[in-house]
Design a protein that fits this description.
Elements: E1 5-8, H1 14-25, E2 29-34, H2 38-50, E3 55-59, H3 65-79, E4 84-87, H4 103-128, E5 137-142, H5 146-149, H6 156-176, E6 181-188, H7 195-198, H8 204-209, H9 220-231, E7 242-245
Parallel strand pairs: 1-2, 1-4, 2-3, 4-5, 5-6, 6-7
Helix pairs in contact: 1-2, 1-9, 3-4, 4-6
Bound molecules: 1,4-dihydronicotinamide adenine dinucleotide.
The site of 1,4-dihydronicotinamide adenine dinucleotide (NAI) has 27 residues, from α1, α4 and α7.
Amino acid sequence: MNAPVVLITGGSRGIGAATALAAARAGYAVAVNFHRNAAAAQAVVDEIKAQGGQALTLQADVTQEEDVLALFAAIDTAWGRLDALVNNAGIVDVSCRVDAMGVARLKRMFETNVVGSFICAREAVLRMSTRHGGRGGTIVNVSSAAARLGSPGQYVDYAASKGAIDTFTIGLAKELAAEGIRVNGVRPGIIDTEIHASGGEPNRAQLLGAQVPMQRPGTAEEVAQAIMWLIGPQSSYSTGALLDVSGGR
Ligand code: NAI
């Protein structure tokens, strides 16, 4: 494989799908991970291939270690290299105060948003770090403006999981800085994707977008462009950076 390879978790829709398409346009071979919706992931891969790019779909639940091991092994087999990881897979839940949050919800939130990102990063580091014989690479963690704002009355659990992602980004960046791997994060604000419907509020992006200083929600493509800058060589002296893509929010 001559092209650089990027793995995008949760790449079948929203910010992940937009990033997959942008990465393919930039010359990356793209591993499009999906959780359940094989058809949506295949549609992303078909679009990439129609434009002359290289891509494959790979099923894995990022909370399941065996799934993640199989995901990375499949990339090893198919392409034999890994140059970048975008830890994009993430969930919200329905709006709820902390005094009503059950343990099952909290475990699901932190296992998906935090543990999933950690174990995917671990497998990427084992392949990319010069310490392990790799040739370096980049990791971009998709955090959220919620990490700064706290999301009171809505989903403090989600915000705290993204706060963990910010700290993870800073720590891992320093841990790997001398091993050829840069680690950065993006903090999207209100972005118009299907995640809001998953949290029971399909109109959330339009409703809250008006309160953003730029007076509109962002698009998945706008976040994808920031991710692309961070995974590529243009950001060569940035590591541990958290880039807000939030319209001034
Ligand atoms: P989305 O719901 O369209 O995409 C999330 C993707 O993650 C989906 O494809 C979903 O299947 C996948 N996923 C969820 N759990 C998974 C699991 N266990 N294993 C594998 N994949 C899994 O939402 P969107 O908006 O594209 O979100 C992408 C990232 O951006 C998330 O990390 C989210 O927290 C973050 N974000 C989104 C914002 C927004 O306003 N849309 C704002 C700030 C951050």
